[in-house]
Amino acid sequence: MLREHQEILSAALLVTDMAAIGLLAGLGLLTSPATGPAPRIWLLVALTVSAWPVLAWKWQVYHSRRLKGLPEELFLLFKATISTFGLATLGTVILAHGPLDGTRILAVLLGVPAALFLIRLPFRLLLKKIRTHGRNLRYVVITGRGGETKKILSYLEENPHFGLHLLGCFGFAGEKKISLGQVPFLGMVKDLPAFLERNVVDEILISPAREVTLAQVNRVIQAVEEFGIPIRLLPETFSPRHAKASLSWFGTIPTLAWCMGPSESFSMVFKRALDMIVSAILLVLLTPVFILAALAIKLTSKGPIFFSQVRCGLHGRPFKVFKFRTMVTDAEQKKRHLLKMNEWDGPVFKMKNDPRITPVGRFLRKFSIDELPQLYNVLRGEMSLVGPRPPLPEEVANYDREHLRRLSVLPGITCIWQVKARDGKDFKKWVQMDLEYIDNWSLGLDLKLLLLTISAVFRGTGA
Do 271 and 235 lie in a common domain? Predict the structure, then answer.
């Protein structure tokens, strides 16, 4: 589909979606007397419809769906709906000075993305049928015979309904020849401009091998730029194992950035907002627990109620972590005499029956009550509710290089290890679990780990 056709389609879908959202939200909310007064409901509907174009565009709901699968499109619609209704509900509460019934709003939140998705299904089926008959095609050329080229060829072969028609492949000087199967080899990249003059090409994929220089790639980009044809660069030269690539801006300068942890996206902003809200609420609600724990510590052992210790945070930043004191006051001095009794491998020290722990401290640790003051660290932005546990500086000093990636995200109060292997003694497995969390992070994973943590704490598992 040509760009102008895509823009027309996106605009038509946007208008249809806004009408559907207004109708569904209005009917869904007005049919429930418990939702609130009618003026307040209409304000919510108006704010929802107004906010939808901005947030839906931010979530790329109206970007080309040529390469999107059905689950991805439904997920994007759901995220856009949650964001829009959340913002609209907050605006309504502030402007109308009154609460809204959450049950009906929740039903609308589930119904709207499902309805919008159903609107798109006939369109998808029609496009699939048209493309399998050789129409509505987007003509693509590949330049380069890097490691990604075979993956692209295989992907296009397996997904003909995307409507991407591969015209052929050009090669860079110095590249090793690879088998292109039935795809025609059109010559070297120096022949590309002449080919573009004679043929319709909608997009060019540049997939250079490692031996291709940046100067060679840049010459191709400059040549294609004269034709105004979109370019996608698949740089095998830059292929980190774990980092995620994205286009970002350094001031006014565009850069290709690789993020070692979760990218700075709206989801990360939401995670931080959730950390602040939940930690603030829990600090208030758990005040009785704080008072009882403080009294128990003060009445049963000498020393301060709280224990603070320097730990390593994001990218190794030092900060003071706060806990309820569970050990005798000279625990740090006694530690060096106990090092030979360490039950863990790697650069950490842990003992199941540590003699420095007080009786009250053992109870606090069993149910993780000693960790609750770290909610203050979360509120301050030094920690998150979920993330790898913050290590000691001396532990980090003895890390192997691959362990340092644990520091690429904010440390957390709970993590995968806390809920799955709390009683384990394998440091490598612990690191592996933390890296698994970093590489697969999502808001859903955070929620799952928080729920599992609650269960583990009540059972006192592995403490």
Answer: no
